[in-house]
Amino acid sequence: MCLSFLSKPYDTASRVNTIRSHFPFFSDSGHPVYFDSAATSLKPAVVIDRITRYYSTQSSNVHRADYALGLEISQEYESCRELVRQFLDAGDEYEVIFNSGTTDGLNTVAQTLLKGLSHKATVHTSIMAHHSLLLPLRRYSQEYGLQCLVHSCDHSGALDIDALCNQLKAGDALFLCGMSNITGYTPPLKRIVEHCQEIKVPIIIDGAQLVSHRDVSLRDTPVDAIVFSPHKLFGPTGVGVLCIKRRLIDTLHPFRVGGGIVSEVTLYGQEYQEGARAFEAGTPAIASVLGMGAALTFIDRFGGMKVVTAHEKTLRKQLIDGLQAIPHIHILGDPDLSDVAVVSIVSSKYHAQDICFHLNANNIATRGGFLCAQPYVNCFTEKPAVRVSCHVYNTPDDILLLLSALEAL
To answer: In terms of pTM, does the model score above 0.85?
Structure first.
């Protein structure tokens, strides 16, 4: 599909409407108003077409072929690493590892990094952690005999950064959620990273939401590792990214072994590949990696993440203003803590699931429950919540439909 429109000057509304036209989801007149992008985003035609083309006319494995098609796909597959590096503004000190998603990446780092820590070390995280971060840290801390300290938030939903930094010590490790999937809150990562560098504490970021809503620069905020899932960023499911500093990866050992990660195998041992390849055993999700590359190219051509950020800021203001005007609706956290269009609510009159069912009856898709971050939700309420999560393809009219349906409850 032609992307020439992306180089033309557009005002925000026109640009968003044109971007929206590249998502086949909206070509069906019966499609729901989609407010579940924090779970997974919609996919543009260029991503779907790239995956289809691979399976239709280019199906071959990577890194194993001595024929033209296999070599061509291997080269394109590897070029996707460079696209990720550019997208994250990552310098040469970083390696890009492909995996099956954020959960897989966080498990990889937790299992391998924590195993090498001193028994006196403390593993730090925060109460805003998604379950895919909290549960691996809890499991491997217990397995390796380490203390896992979960830092709390205040009544607004923000972390006490001074308390966090004061409790970190050399030899510890910090795993932090880069952006809440409940409130959209982002802690001051640059300040935290600077402190971690001073005291030599590795900092690993769950970037599942952060990368999906913000322009991330690892040159500006050089975390030791960041993990994200492209399916929340217009890409396919089944692939994830772990971008990690070489000096940290050199201290880790492959825990999932098999074909593709060795340079030599004998009856008595094996020699592992260096860098990222040592952590990519077996046949990878080739089609999904190629689809991810198409998604990152699509983002770059419509103006980059700054377009997403600006549009979401407008949507969030409209959404917050409208929700605050409905007496029985309560917003989780301080609305002023974020400008990302991810908002969670509870009602003093209705259960979350009843609200979701009511919205579904009005052809509006939202998500209800504890949203894989129950400890953080419980900072605000004991009840399950309803989450409204937007992306660049949502419009002010979508927000109006949602607010009208909520007012009709």
So the answer is: yes
